[in-house]
Amino acid sequence: MDFVTTLVSSAYQFGDAFAFLVLSACGLAVIFGMMGVINLAHGEFIMCGAYMTVFAVNWGLPLPLAIIVGSLFAGLVGMVIERLVVRRLYSRPLDSILATWGVSLIASQGTLILFGPTMRGVGTPLGSFMVGSLSFSYYRLVLMATAIAVLLLLYLVFNKTRFGVLARATIQAPHMASALGVDTNRIYTLTFGIGAALAGLTGGIYAPTMTMIPTMGTTFIMEAFVTVVVGGADVFIGTAPAAVLLAVVKASLTSWQGQLAGQIGLLLAVIITIRLLPKGVTGFILKGRV
């Protein structure tokens, strides 16, 4: 391969890994990073969005609209789960782990019983383009653009809107927010629903690229947790830099030695980063600030 082809290939692999990490982590960043709920059902929200997207396409909706339907459906399911299960466990993090793990088992096994071990998906749209002797998917470029758009949207919603101010106030000082007249239960439900909807968006947008099986969410959950943990306490500051760091490691090793080496390198990078930066990327960026 010539230099230009190699450069484009490397940039494409980095962008693909970055998009996967960001989109995997964005919903978890809201639920785990902001609310402190260790949501082991995150993968099942992704699966929920993917399945609903495929159903919507089969009902005749165009793919972009079907993805929106899948995301909204996952958000609605998330709000129901928050009302029935999670709401009672905000001060009991270990119990929330057990409860959301139970939800994940019920969701995956229920999907298996209802729809079988696999389901016909939808084809990857938009086709591909050539650079030298290599072929690249246009749809992967859409995933990269979507990841950047989601990061920007999250920042705007939680930093520039009234809901974002109320959400951050409720999560940081719920008793004070309640004393000032904020309906904290409603804020918790909506925030959890936004996290679930973002997970559903991830499932919907990746549905054309994956095999539809009840356990498909496990493909995302490891990358989601490591990205949020490496990012640190402030999800809006830490998630994007953490995704960049991990994407460089994963893309480089995958290109060099294959997918297994990329996964191993990703986990080693997480261990080293947390050892050197116990507060994650956020702690490093905010170092020295009051």
TrEMBL record:
One MF term in GO for this entry? transmembrane transporter activity
Q: What is its main location?
A: membrane
Q: Which residues cross the membrane?
A: 17-38, 67-86, 98-118, 138-158, 187-208, 220-248, 260-277
Look up keyword Iron and say if it applies: no
| Record's keyword terms, sorted | Amino-acid transport, Cell membrane, Membrane, Transmembrane, Transmembrane helix, Transport
Report the subcellular localization: Cell membrane
Q: Which GO terms describe its cellular component?
A: plasma membrane
Task: Describe its membrane topology.
Answer: Multi-pass membrane protein
The record's listing under CDD domains reads: TM_PBP1_LivH_like
One GO biological process term? amino acid transport
Stated family: Belongs to the binding-protein-dependent transport system permease family. LivHM subfamily.
Q: What is this protein called?
A: Branched-chain amino acid ABC transporter permease
